[in-house]
Leucine-rich repeat-containing protein 2 (Knipowitschia caucasica), 407 residues
Amino acid sequence: METSWCGPVAIRAQTQLPSRPPVGGAMGVDRRRDVPVYDLSVIRGLWEGRASKQRVREKRERERREKSALARIEQQWQYRIYCKTLKRDERNALQRYLERSPNHQPGNNQPGNHTDIGADGQSGLQTEPDPENLVFRLEGDKWMSFPKELQWMTYLKEWHVSHTRIQRLPEFFDQFSKLSVLNLAKNQICEVPADIGKLRSLKQLDLSYNRLMKVPVELGDCEELERLELAGNHLCELPFELSSLKQLHLLDVSENSIPSVPVCVLRMESLNTLDLSNNRLRELPQDMDRLENLVTLFLHKNPMSYLPHCLTNISGLKMVIVSGDELNCIPTRICSNPDIKFIRLYDSPTQQQKQKEEEAQRKRRWKGAEEQRDSSEKEFLQAYVSTLTHRESVPYSTTKISISCQL
């Protein structure tokens, strides 16, 4: 039998068929017909083998580029070009800064340790530098982009950038391979570049209260990630590639527009804190018990009418927070279990308050991505929950109240 490829899913086999004997008893000439034989397992095996080899080749090429001296040479040339653009006083100040750095050696033009840049644009060093705590801080609404000097500080391990008007991350972002903490909360970032997948040492990522519409699939390559905070953005879904974040133990996607629990969330095996509050969830999937290590679950401010029975199969579940206004069906083993702190938040607004909320929602829809969300309510709730963790019993329900003080 002879086989040949014809299309991505079909295998054609040439089969010899006996022909009808002609009239008179003489044997006729044999005829051959192509019979399609579909064997998806063979196709799938070949395809997965090729895809695996391609991933190995891409990984080797990526490692080769990272070890190559070309990137370092390019960085040094860019640094020299930048120094040429500085005035004499600025160049002398930069030189003094480098000489005071603990990592500075003759011939090494990399600055180094802890850099603080405040709203006034001033930067400085710690009086007692700590080589194990290499941190970059940037704060203030006068900042609309990252300083150019940052591109030569690839030794940094932490970024803390907040309350700025920065909308995009710098082009040299992928060179910070030692970065373990990336805190970019409360800025105006609209997009996260695909190069974030190159930060293989990243353990904490905070992009809360920005203007993100989507999350790059390459974030799934940061397999060492332990904390991922995406609250207060404009997300409607999470990519399936985030399923590879097996070390993640905290996921915060509150205050977004997610209509259902993303599939990738159910595959995060180490997850123990999940915040899905203030979204558009109407129900939970029936396989939520796949999150065997889940301890705390935030579900308040979602239009949910019932909780699935599968939540009772999560043996380590200790705290569940829901909105009690529309919830009318709750498994008894959750609401009456003394080991679970089950909290209902009631927020029964008056008709006038409802009209104000509807008007605010229309304004938010009109503004679109220009909306800057407020984190004060979330901070208050976190403080409230922290007071409950050390109490043996908690109130069955809590009514939201408003207190105003005149000083």
Residues 40-67 form the longest helix (28 residues). The longest strand covers residues 11-17.
